[in-house]
Amino acid sequence: MSRSRKYYIVSLGCPKNTVDSESMAVLLERAGYRVASAPERADLLIVNTCGFIAPAREESVATLHELIDGRRPGQRVIAAGCYAQRSPDELIDAVPGLDGVLGTRHWKDVAALAKRLRSISSSRPHPPEVCVLPEGSSAVPSEDGVHRVAIQGNSAYLMIADGCRRTCAFCAIPLIKGDSVSRPVDAILADARWLADRGIQEIILIAQDTTGYGDDLGMRDGLLVLLDRLVDAVPSVPWIRIMYAFPGPVVGRLMRLMAQYPQILPYLDIPLQHAHPDVLRRMNRPANVDAMRRMIEDLRTEVPGIALRTTFLTGFPGETEEEFEALLDFVVDMRFDRMGVFTYSHEIGTPADRLSDDVSPDVKSERRDRLMEAQQAISLEKNQALVGATLDVLIEGQGDGISVGRSYRDAPEVDCLVLTATQLPVGRIVPVRITAALDYDLVGEPPA
After folding, report:
1. CA separation, residue 44 to residues 12, 72, 77, 118 (Å)
2. CA 256 to CA 258: how far, in whole Å?
3. Quick check: 52 and 13 in contact, CB under 8 A?
4. Cα 195 from Cα 161, distance rounded (Å)
5. Which of 26, 76, 142, 262 has the fewest CB atoms within 10 Å, i.e. is most exposed?
6. DSSP string of 165-210?
7. Which residue ranges does the chain devote to CATH 3.80.30.20?
8. Where are the CATH 3.40.50.12160 domain residues in the chain?
9. What CA–CA distance (Å, rounded) separates 140 from 404?
10. Of 38-47, 80-89, 118-127, 349-358, which range is least confident?
11. Tens digits of per-residue pLDDT, 124-154?
């Protein structure tokens, strides 16, 4: 009896990459592969790369080098994902010894590529097999019955669209992913029901721009239509979370759905990127800062207790100290619940790459640190205000008498935790009374 072939996947970058990795795993399983517990036990090694910014590309290259340097005879190494799609030649030059390169929307070809690689002798050098889309293509693969989800404990990411139609000057995603392609509503609902049947407690809707869902399908307010049907399709799933919203009219209508349906968590991730109109114009982003303020105030009025997450860039070309101070004042005034800050880096092929990078790396980092220092104080104050309140918490782990989970205010991986000195059931949503506040995390106990 022949030994079954094994695969090992390293998934880098965002949850959207995680979904693609899970989809590749399903297809490899169908082709007779089994997952390996460690790289040295696998016949096929795959790194699903991130190519969004330079540090992510560096991590991708380092991970590939580590696998190639330590591989045994006969092992094949494939670079998949965003970096593979964006710059395949650059990646091949940076990582000698690659066997295959698989672009973002060729994930469904992973088993066929693996089969081709098996037919090539490993004893002689060969050029990598390359499968990538032409730049700007919006082609999307047939899903072949693969659920476009990634389960993590009792939560799951559910992909609703891929690609992006926005034209933000700093962002390489349209170059990597192409235009936005929305999945059919029925396919999304089928995946959601499949997750519900497996006891999933939280479904997290993801796309490069969730609020743009359905535009390419001719739908008006497609995300709202989808949510209306989703809450009916999976009544047993208590939490539905929305990530990566673009500021605009859909957000205003979305808040009414949040107020109407308890399943739709009062949490919204809206990457705003900056808060000075001149910088926003250079970024090719919505530049009406007063409208942004009203949107935030309306969200808090219409959806009491809503948790708002955002992301900002510091050091975008031309950012003056005055423009940065406007951003800092905005952060202090708006008091976001969660916030991420990144320093700008030039990305080849983006409109902003043509601009002079006249903000030094040290100034970019110093401005990022000032924003995060302000946010740390805001986060602590908001957490202190929750002491004495009772929050529902999805328990995700326990050990040594401590349980760890998340409330509705926290998305996995990017936000904060609720800690209890009590063994609570993993995978269940339980009430926790908050007894203490840390800078970002909360401490609590089951109500008496």
Report:
1. 17, 11, 6, 10
2. 5
3. yes
4. 18
5. 142
6. ----TT--HHHHH-S-EEPPHHHHHHHHHHHHHTT-SEEEEE-S-G
7. 149-385
8. 6-131
9. 38
10. 118-127
11. 566 676 755 444 444 455 566 789 999 999 9
Distance in angstroms (rounded) separating the CA atoms of residues 333 and 325: 12
Provide the pLDDT for residue 400.
84
Those residues whose C-beta lies under 8 Å from the C-beta of residue 363, and which sit 6 or more positions away, are 315
pLDDT of residue 290: 96
The CATH number of 149-385 is 3.80.30.20
Type of residue numbered 41 = R
Place of tokens 């359905």: 214
User: What is the Cα–Cα distance from 420 to 365, expressed in whole angstroms?
Assistant: 35
Q: Strand pairing partners for 343?
A: 314
Q: What is the DSSP letter of 124?
A: S
Q: What is the mean pLDDT of residues 354-374?
A: 95
Task: Provide the token pair at 51.
Answer: 């190519």
Q: What's the first-to-final CA gap in the chain, in angstroms?
A: 59
pLDDT digits (tens, 9 = 90+) for 239-259: 999 999 998 888 888 988 999
Residue by residue, DSSP assigns 281-307 as HHHTS---HHHHHHHHHHHHHHSTT-E
Other beta carbons less than 10 A from residue 235's beta carbon:
9
Per DSSP, the three-state class of 217 is helix
Instruction: Map tokens 């800062």 to a residue.
Output: 289
Q: Can you tell me the distance from the alpha carbon of 168 to that of 436, in angstroms, rounded to the nearest whole number?
A: 41
DSSP code for 252:
H
Question: Hey, what are 150's tokens?
Answer: 């990634």
Domain span(s) for CATH 2.40.50.140 in the chain = 390-445
For residue 109, which of 33, 32, 23 has the smallest C-alpha distance?
A: 23
318 vs 156: CA distance, rounded Å: 40
Options 3.40.50.720, 3.30.470.10, 3.40.50.12160, 3.40.50.2000; which CATH number does 6-131 get?
Answer: 3.40.50.12160
pLDDT tens, position by position, 284-322: 999 999 999 999 999 999 999 999 999 999 999 999 999
**Mean pLDDT computed over 37-62:** 91
Q: Which fold has domain 390-445?
A: OB fold (Dihydrolipoamide Acetyltransferase, E2P) (2.40.50)
**C-alpha to C-alpha distance for 142 and 133, rounded to whole angstroms:** 15
Q: Which two tokens stand for residue 424?
A: 């609570």
Judge whether 211 and 193 are in contact, CB under 8 Å.
no
* Mean pLDDT value across residues 192-216: 96
Q: Compute and round to an integer the Cα radius of gyration of the chain.
A: 23
